[in-house]
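Changelog-linked ticket: manganese (II) ion example.
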Amino acid sequence: MTRRHRAWRASAPPRSTANSACWAVVALESTIITHGMPWPSNVETAKKVEQAVRDAGGVPATIALLDGKIRVGLDDDTLLWLGQARSVLKVSRADLGFALASGAAGSTTVAATMICAHLAGIDVFATGGIGGVHRGVEHTMDISADLTEFVQTPVTVVCAGAKALLDLPRTLEYLETMGVPVVGYGTDQFPAFWSRSSGLTLPLRADGAADIASMIAMRGRLGLAGGVVVANPVPAAHEIPREEMESLILQGVADATREGVSGKSVTPYLLGRMLELTGGRSLATNIELVLNNARVATEIALALRSLSR
Ligand code: PSU
Ligand code: MN
């Protein structure tokens, strides 16, 4: 084992180092840049999201793998490179060790970003939508490793629910079985990414960042492992109604099945297909919901910092 590997093992962080010090740090993922949005919207959005965190009083830390290292916080040149690079690995929990050992460039999914954020002592992370149970799971067994990450890694992820292209009822059932709290932020409904509601009711609701922070602190005191999903609906002005999305989603999922898309490619394929089928509207909504999540995540990071003072 090399010294670098030992160093990582030895550096299991004390809880909350980054946030409880003096900054409210918000982690951001990079798969959304490399596999979730087309160039140049991906880089423009990444920069806007970082700025939204700063404007709200936080410090953004976009996470990616470069030259065999976990990079927590990227400069603009690196963002620009990532946004145009063709051969960046989409790295989830299963790929993290391989990607770092090989030195290949990697973008981190929700699961991998949670792991890296926790190693860096960051408690809060903003993204678009988490992965989940895919439609057709009874044939494919396709369940995102994002879901099992919440069981083991204590990071709070602010998202607009899970992408409506997933099987949302099964995604919620799975999270419930695994003991993962899904908290509606100012809503009783599980959001459906592009739409404010999936029609599914959530058992937990919080109407402000302070309530989320108290809940996270209480979970810490109880010694409960794992993270929290904060489900924050897209602002009404930017939503695409659920009925409008549903027929396009059915079409996109059918296309994916017909073309034999599987594994890691499913989510990027479907996001790209939705972009085509909505004539770009899904991307505009995606950008707005990520910005909104970044603001809420910063408020939660600030509230957590106040609690630890
Ligand atoms: N949601 C988006 N864009 C994305 C993703 C989610 O709006 O690019 C990415 C996230 O990185 C998420 C991943 O963790 O897709 C899930 O992929 P999979 O279903 O293969 O686990
Ligand atoms: Mn999958």
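Closing comment: Example verified and attached. The pocket of manganese (II) ion (ligand 2) is lined by residues 142, 144, 266 (CB under 6 Å). The beta strands are 25-28, 59-66, 69-72, 89-91, 106-108, 124-126, 156-159, 182-185, 204-206, 228-231.
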